[in-house]
Amino acid sequence: MSFAGIAAAAAGSIISGSMQKSAANKAAKSAEFNPYNVSGGVGSATFGNGTASYQLSPEYQALRNQFLGSAQGTMGAYNAYDPQQAAQQLYGQLGQLSAPGEAQARSSMENRLFAQGRLGTTGGQQQFGNLLQAQNLAGVGREVQSFNMAQDVQNQLLGRAMQSAQGGAAIDQMGQGLIGMGSDLGGRQSSAGAYAAQFPWQAAQNQSDATSAFFSNIASKVGSAQTPQPQYGPMAGGYLTGPQLNSPYTPQYGIY
Fold first, then answer.
1. Which domain holds residue 168?
2. 135 lies in the same domain as 233
3. For the segment 190-219, what is each residue's pLDDT rounded down to a tens digit?
4. Are residues 84 and 60 in the same domain?
5. Over the chain, what is the mean pLDDT?
6. Phi, psi of 240 (to 5 degrees)
7. Is residue 36 within 8 Å of 185, Cβ to Cβ?
8. Which of 9, 67, 81, 242 could staple 230 via S-S, CB 3.0–4.6 A?
9. 40 and 180 in contact (C-beta within 8 Å)?
10. Are residues 167 and 131 in the same domain?
11. Global pTM?
12. β-strands 43-48, 51-56: how paired?
């Protein structure tokens, strides 16, 4: 192949490679993940330098602080609450409420047995003992009831603290949702860009192949070309381009 052919082939390779590289760079840029900054009533989310953050609006920030402040206050009351001490206090209060009625019941039983002449009898004593036993069982019941009530109060304090904390966490999740929304939009754009980049990439590939083939064809023609040889014979102007040696006599031109 001649020098001109080699040069044409090299030029075609360089141009073809440049076109492919340009198309590849465009396709890669179209497929890059670029999340969207998002803003709304809840707040805003921003992306940059490989980080993502959100900022709540003043109203939602204040509401979040209120929830968390309530949670901290209620949790403090929960930690300070002593269910055993509370149960003893409740038991004493219930006992005080029940004492007048129980005393009245004992007094009525004694008066009735005395009136019947059975106060000192075995049967009378057994009946009065049954009354005392029932009142003692009622006292045990009040003790259990007091403990359960104290536990209920403690559980309610914990439940209120958790509900308030969950309220604050729910607002935080709203802010995190803005980050998710921006990431989702960026991911969709990246997928769409990658899909769309397939077509110009293919077009560039086809154009690159055509360019390469074009220069290869030139190189082939240049490489196979030979130095032109003089043509012998009549020309349109009625003269010869060179001596026609060892040719038969041609009367039309009067020469050999």
1. 3-224
2. no
3. 665 555 555 554 555 555 555 555 445 555
4. yes
5. 77
6. -100, 145
7. yes
8. 242
9. no
10. yes
11. 0.56
12. antiparallel
On whether the CB atoms of residues 244 and 255 are closer than 8 A, the answer is yes
CA distance 97 to 103: 11
If asked whether residues 219 and 231 sit together in one domain, one would say no
Instruction: Look up residue 245 and give its two tokens.
Output: 């040696």
pLDDT (0 to 100) of residue 50: 83
Do residues 184 and 163 both lie within one domain? yes
In a shared domain, residues 216 and 234? no
Residues 22 and 109 placed together within one structural domain of the fold: yes
CA distance 166 to 56: 17
- Following DSSP, what letter does each residue of 131-186 receive, concatenated? HHHHHHHHHHHHHHHHHHHHHHHHHHHHHHHHHHHHHHHHHHHHHHHHHHHHHHHH
pLDDT in tens, 124-179: 999 999 999 999 999 999 999 999 999 999 999 999 999 999 999 999 999 999 99
